[in-house]
């Protein structure tokens, strides 16, 4: 996903990158004036943000606000040869363009509940409209722990869609090209720090985390390797569901290595989390965990899932942004594995990591044989970070699906195939046997650091009320 506006480190109150983080041929960005933030009146246009939350924010002590961010964004170009190791040189071109974009903010209604960390998401535009994947998966954790969240319209297609859906509300939103995206995303971090009173309703944040999924994850891989070293905008980066490559730094055909690992000399922590769908294309970019890079591959999960889809369908029915508002449905029930538990744990650990409280626990890779995922007798993946719904299964969880009206969607949504009654009775002769097996699996995930205590309690309570066929 697209770009950002550039500032020299001296012009920002951002974490300073250590000298060794950038290779000798990397240059710093020139100074660009700070972005200006203004709130969109709640009643403007249709009276709600496109992509507004569909959960009850008030019940969680949260509120939603929407802002315009305007400024001048730079573009970047490669310096030297980019190799698979990720130590990529880059420099600002000095060619700047005006832009106006939007920031969708979810924040604690009571400033005293703010935990000091802001998650800034590079909103995904794979289906032609902004989608907040990270918010959809981890909003319960964000609300429990007191995070603030900012979704950034970072790419041209997302900006154009906003104007088409609600021209009265978003008439000023304009991004000339995706070449500006990296600069715009960096400026969003600057705005969060400089305009915290307006955006967050409180004092400045302690830490600002970057996050993005799928296409946005590919953009963040490039951001982590090439942009963050010269524009130290974020304290940590979470990359969710990317393939082995990365995204171009500008527009047009730009030679990139087919395999892009995260640079091991990163000045800030980078946490990669991969679903089973992603591993098939990501495997060539696997790298050992290190002081600044950690990767989890979560078995049984898909690129998108039933939990997120329920929210996307509700948003789309209201906004009519995709397929005239009709829900996405696939040939088989969509993957219902509890990815959100791993996502929540990843954010928890990344927040601790950037605060100097220790790196996240490691997770074993999903088991592959000749490029194919190895599976047990029920068809579930072997290896990987394992959640209790997979280690005490009632179904087989597949990484892909088929059918649907929206091209490509079901390939990413995965499938759930319930185990036969006979197989379930073989695994769990009684209801209590199932609860015991599930609780033990949840205990293992909790001990490994792959499941948070609140999600452990929710999962075990759910198992106790799940009837066996």
TrEMBL record:
Keyword Signal: yes
Residue ranges constituting the Alpha/beta hydrolase domain according to the UniProt record: 41-461
Signal peptide start-end: 1-21
Superkingdom classification of source: Bacteria
Keyword field: Signal
Protein's recorded name: Alpha/beta hydrolase domain-containing protein
Source organism per UniProt: Nonomuraea composti
